[in-house]
Amino acid sequence: MGARNKKIKDGAWPGLRGSLSWLAGKLRLGILSLGLQGAIVVTLVIAALIGIRLARGQAARLPQFCVHPAQLRAQAPPWCAAQLEQVQFPRECYSIFDPQLTRDVAEAYLASPWVKAVRRVEKRFPNHLDVELDLREPAAFVRLPDASYAIDRDGVLLPLDYERWDHDQRPLPLIFGVKTEPPEPGCRWSDPGTLAALSVLQAMASEPTLLRQVHFVDVSNLDGVIDPQRSEVLLFTRRRVRVAWGRPPNTTAFGEPTVPCKLARLRRHLSRPLALSDGTSSIDLRFPDEDEALARHD
Asked: What is the DSSP letter of 187?
């Protein structure tokens, strides 16, 4: 019995220790193997990324992936198409892969007075761009002693010559009585007379037939600066009808018929034939006509 214990004590059962040593060795080998495999995978991934980047860099320099923004032809009406074709871009050529491409194109178009907003700039492989713009449209001309200046419905000055506009196909009213100089193209003309005239024209936008007949808008007496008893805004139609509109719709003053009432009266009056004697007539929209006065009195 003592001899047996001595064998155990002296390590006569080497199987357990050997097994542990064998297992530890295998674990070390496994860890080393996994580490080696992981290193190989990481190396392959890095190599693949570098390869993709190099390949993309090579592809970016290929002419078939080159975009020339100056060759873009955004859909635009004839009065501003030529000027949009002259928009200046930061670079002559971009790669379709360039992340700065769409931003540069959008900012270049936004610098044009004709562009109100850039709706989208999308890449289309291999070398095309789809551009959609929200463009400003002339709404009237402001007449000053030196020239006539085009503005849109918001009062933004547009780079359009009066002589180059097709007045027969798209007649626009002339605004008289503006007392300030025009701003830079693309900036809002904040003159009170300009804004008052535009508020009248915008109020008539729901009546295109009436709006097309307006030839002049005179705001010389705005705020009654010439004569408080006279209409602040006068309209003259292409058939030489003088219309005393009254106060502009953008005022907060009271005491006149509503815009719908004024438009209804103007529609009825302009539908009547003019007197053949002189071809002129007038209407004052500041006061109700006789039929309206009788209806209110009753």
From this structure: S
Cβ contact 234:242 at 8 Å: yes
The residue type found at 150 is: A
Verdict on whether the full-model pTM lies above 0.85 = no
CB 89 within 8 A of CB 105: yes
Query: Of how many residues is the chain composed?
Result: 298
Q: Is 285:265 a contact under the CB 8 Å cutoff?
A: yes
Place of tokens 């008539």: 204
pLDDT tens for the chain, residues 1 to 298: 555 555 445 544 455 666 666 666 666 666 666 666 665 656 666 655 555 554 455 555 567 789 888 888 778 999 999 999 999 999 999 999 899 999 999 999 999 999 999 999 999 988 889 999 999 999 999 999 999 999 999 999 999 999 999 999 999 999 999 999 999 999 999 999 999 999 999 999 999 999 999 999 999 999 999 999 999 999 999 988 999 999 999 887 778 999 999 999 999 988 877 654 445 688 999 987 654 443 343 3
Cβ count near 293 (within 10 Å): 11
